[in-house]
Amino acid sequence: MQPSYETAGGRAYVFGCGCRRAAVDAGLVERLARDRVEAESVDLVTGVPPERLRLVFEGLFVQVRVGGSPDELEFVWRV
Description:
Blueprint: E1 4-5, E2 11-13, E3 24-25, H1 26-40, H2 53-60, E4 61-66, E5 73-77
Antiparallel strand pairs: 1-2, 2-3, 4-5
């Protein structure tokens, strides 16, 4: 999923399925995803600029699911 841009100019993930009414801050989700990857191996994200993290995440995760709150993430890893 690509982040959308809110009217205030911030990046956010918007859920078109209707499962979540409020947009989720893209920076928060991406920081938490990076933290999770670093917990497995810091080498996977060392030196990777923020605009290239998407490629790293696509290679590692099938999905990142947002739970009841934006910091409640579930990672579905590629095997």
